[in-house]
Amino acid sequence: MTMLADAVPELPSQAQYARFSRRLRGMFVDWVLALVVMFGAILVAVSLGNAVFSRILAVVVALFFVLYEPLLVSRTGGTVGHWFTNLRVVDDRTGGNLSLRTAFIRAAIKAVLGVYSFIIMLATRRNQAVHDLLTHSTVQIRDAAKAAPHHFITERTELSSPTMPSAGRRVVATMAYLALMLLAYIVAFAIVVGLGGISDACIDNDVCSAGENVLQAATGIAILVTAAIVIGLGWRGRLYGARRTA
Fold first, then answer.
1. For residue 67, what are the contacts with CB-CB under 8 A and spacing of at least 6?
2. pLDDT digit string (tens) for 85-98?
3. pTM summary value
4. For the chain, percent helix, then strand, then coil, each to nearest 5?
């Protein structure tokens, strides 16, 4: 761990903040690792058939899931997923790694909010999710020499521009667009139900077919992505009704 921490290259003078697509790849690597650990433990427990050992193994796996991200983030600046995608979690106040306590808090907020934590990224100066903002951290490129331009952004300085509409106006415009989006969703949902795309059993009793589950999942993802884009554009003064002046 110490060798890895010492091997972290210096960050460039202009920080490079990871895009969501890059962070998503890192999370995917960590999810795969978590699945390997979990199913590997189940396979070992079933193979041995020892109840006591199975309980001990369950505790070990639980500790792995609790300690994995905080320990690696505080000691090496990132998880295995971060390392594979050339990313590093940085303490904005010191420029170094997060403390263990802050890394635990960050991981806990991230676990509670899940994907909803990322919905504000486009509206922040440094592509920060909620768990980043609340712990004064950012996710940056670890080694600039290995990064492509589409892997990162630099700080969005336009958010402090005098040509930007007032915060209140941007909030009102964003809320209006989100309300219109919700109305469009309600109308579209009613049309789909009317055409038989979703059955009464699925709506009333949550007994849904595979196709209905896929449709609902796709709709949920589309709503989240659209809401994130609207929030980002709204706060950056790019929506009609609250646009930056030229």
1. none
2. 999 999 999 999 99
3. 0.84
4. 65, 5, 25
